[in-house]
Amino acid sequence: EEGAPGRRGERERNEEGPAERGPGAAFHMFVLMEDLLDKLKLLSYEEEALRRHNMRPLSRHYFALPTNPGEQFFMFCTLAAWLISTAGRPFEQPQESDDPNAVISNVLSELRSF
């Protein structure tokens, strides 16, 4: 029934986009990125992963804002390979010239085997 109280409001709430969930929803990705960075620092990623590949440390919002997708993708792959290796699995470090689909497929395959 279209005139039933509450029905229309429930339907509208289910169709809301991320920006309409609340004032803080638009900043949730920034909070997640800061949490990720804290966890990477606990694992000493700067000394272990970045120095080995001559890369600079991540900013607090590196993956939260799409600035340079190619660079961000390579950084993600480098960190994923390092984390997989740190977990005790041999994993070859991807190169910038590698096929992105193949790299992601290898990362996902390795993660599924965990």
From TrEMBL:
Residues 1-19 have a biased composition (Basic and acidic residues). Residues 1-24 are annotated as: Disordered. Its main location: other. It is found in: Cell projection, Cilium. It comes from the Eukaryota. Keywords: Cell projection, Cilium. GO terms for cellular component: cilium; Golgi apparatus; intraciliary transport particle B; microtubule organizing center. One of its GO terms (biological process) is non-motile cilium assembly. The keyword Phosphoprotein does not apply. InterPro entries: Intra-flagellar_transport_57. Belongs to the IFT57 family. This is Intraflagellar transport protein 57 homolog.
